[in-house]
Amino acid sequence: MRALCWEGADALAVRQVPDPELRNAQDMIVRVRRSATCGADLPLLAGRIPYLAAGDVLGHEFLGEVVEVGPEVRRHRVADRVVVCAGVACGACWFCRQGLFAWCDNGTTGAAAAETAWGQPTAGCFGHPGPLGGFAGSHAEYVRVPYADVGAFTVPDEVSDDRAVFASDAAPTGWLGTELGEVTRGDVVAVWGAGAVGQLTAGAALLRGADRVIVVDGHDDRLRMVERHVGAEPLNYRYVDVTAELRERSGGRGPDVCVEAVGMAAEPPGLLAGRLGGGADRPLALREAVHACRKGGTVVVLGTWTGFVDTFPLGAVMNKGLTVRSARQHGQRWIPMLLDRMARDELRTEHLATHHLPLERGPDGYALFRDRADGCIRAVFSP
């Protein structure tokens, strides 16, 4: 089959790779219909994550059609249209039984390396190397889906592919941001980053009753999308003092909840570096979120980070009494609810699929996405 593979720093190529096969009784094979780029892929593309090897297949946010099921798969059958959670979780370990799927003990093939980096293994992710998963990615014609009954969900007929694909990762990540921030009616919420995750975090905050939601970014085209499609307030950091403006919009206190949805994609190398040899990352947006948040408020870290960071304002966290929370998305908890909201038109995401390309043009799609060229929010590939 054809797949989009990493060839070395900043180099991608579509090549022939072996077709996936069932390896375990709970596996199934999915023919991919849509697979989207994601900011978490950019450090991989740049060669900043150890263990990634030339020829590894990228991609983790996808939707497709079931073509083969293992003998222990009960919830799915051939020809079902399913969206697959980007995170791989077994559904049976202690963490999965608590609904904490992102911390699954059995969802990665590289547990030893993950323990070296973080002290404990976490759930895997499609299209990432061993410590972060070790499963072939979704930028391909077919994907093997482990623990299929846990991580794959049937898509309602009335939900389009372009809408449903974002239930794989971006939408549950946005919902996670509001869960961690405990956003409630009357809150003022600020979100750093107007990409797909930032926009869906803002939308989730509004669905939960936030009084004002402000999205901070430096790209006017993205901020226009925030205003038009999400109904949140845009704030371009290039033109204003962000902290002062947020205080003005929140009764002089600062936002109740500040969500960082930027991550390390545009930062210098570091990543797993603290214990694996390298420098630290600079959390620019996170630092601003800490300073902007009201006293006693909550700062949520949604952006992708894998190692150590430098110049983190711990003094501000302590003196202001802030709560800092972070996690990767427990999508298995929320994807059914998000699909229901999509079916009821409460959650619309198709505007985020700004560029549709065939898989053969995968390198072009990633160049557009990486450079934020031509108004690209997400490039979506169709094999």
- Proportion of β residues? 15-25%
Specify the number of helices: 14
- Gap between N and C termini, in Å? 10 Å
What structural class is derived from the secondary structure elements? alpha/beta
Described by the principal axes of the CA atoms, the overall outline is globular
Radius of gyration: 20 Å
What top-tier CATH class of the largest domain fits best? Alpha Beta
CATH homologous superfamily (4th level) name of the largest domain: Medium-chain alcohol dehydrogenases, catalytic domain
Give helix % range: 25-40%
Can you summarize the main beta sheet?
A: 7 strands, mixed
Number of strands: 17
CATH architecture of the largest domain: Alpha-Beta Complex
User: What are the segments in which pLDDT stays under 50 over at least 5 consecutive residues?
Assistant: 266-279
Mean pLDDT level: 91
Our count of domains comes out at 2
CATH-defined topology of the largest domain: Quinone Oxidoreductase, Chain A, domain 1
Explained architecture:
- The chain has 14 helices and 17 strands.
- Strand 16 (353-358), helix 14 (362-371) and strand 17 (378-382) form a beta-alpha-beta unit.
- It folds into two domains: 2-169 and 329-381, Medium-chain alcohol dehydrogenases, catalytic domain (Quinone Oxidoreductase, Chain A, domain 1, Alpha-Beta Complex); 173-326, NAD(P)-binding Rossmann-like Domain (Rossmann fold, 3-Layer(aba) Sandwich), CATH 3.40.50.
- The chain starts with a strand and ends with a strand.
- Strands 3, 4, 5, 8, 9, 16 and 17 form a seven-stranded mixed beta sheet that branches.
- The model is unreliable at 266-279 (pLDDT under 50).
- It has helices at 42-45, 94-97, 111-118, 148-151, 161-164, 170-180, 196-207, 220-230, 242-248, 273-276, 284-292, 314-320, 331-343, 362-371; strands at 2-8, 11-16, 28-36, 61-69, 81-84, 87-88, 124-125, 142-145, 152-154, 188-192, 212-217, 233-236, 257-260, 298-301, 323-326, 353-358, 378-382.
- It has 383 residues and is of the alpha/beta class.
